[in-house]
Design a protein that fits this description.
The chain has no helices and 11 strands. It is mainly beta and 123 residues long.
């Protein structure tokens, strides 16, 4: 089984920065892609960013493009999300996810999920 554990969430002022991490453990030896999604109460899980594990190709939601950067450390099997210029509308629970197949920008394409980490941006 694969386990994903997010960390780095917290409370920040608008305009501030946070760096989220997602550590993978267990039998996660074949990874196609990993991604970040976020969710607020009453809404579905929203795509934030994704990265191809082998090539490093990335994709970002328009709402975070230019502010967030997704990256990965293949050796450590760790995913990161650097969030800059945070806005109150970025407030959400952030989840990391891993796809063993062809996952990209849609939640249903991913196989494993972390427990989530709360990000709160105050104004």
């Amino acid at each position: 089984q694969v386990q994903l554990v997010e960390s780095g969430g917290g409370l920040v002022q608008a305009g501030g920065s946070l760096r989220l991490s997602c550590a993978a453990s267990g039998r996660t030896f074949s990874t196609y892609s990993m991604g970040w999604f976020r969710q607020v109460p009453g809404k579905g899980r929203e795509f934030v960013a994704a990265i191809s594990w082998s090539s490093g190709r990335t994709s970002y939601a328009d709402s975070v493009k230019g502010r967030f950067t997704i990256s990965r450390d293949n050796a450590k099997k760790t995913l990161y999300l650097q969030m800059n210029s945070l806005k109150p509308e970025d407030t959400a629970v952030y989840y990391c996810a891993e796809s063993a197949t062809t996952g990209w920008t849609r939640p249903h394409e991913y196989d494993y999920w972390g427990q989530g980490t709360q990000v709160t941006v105050s104004s």
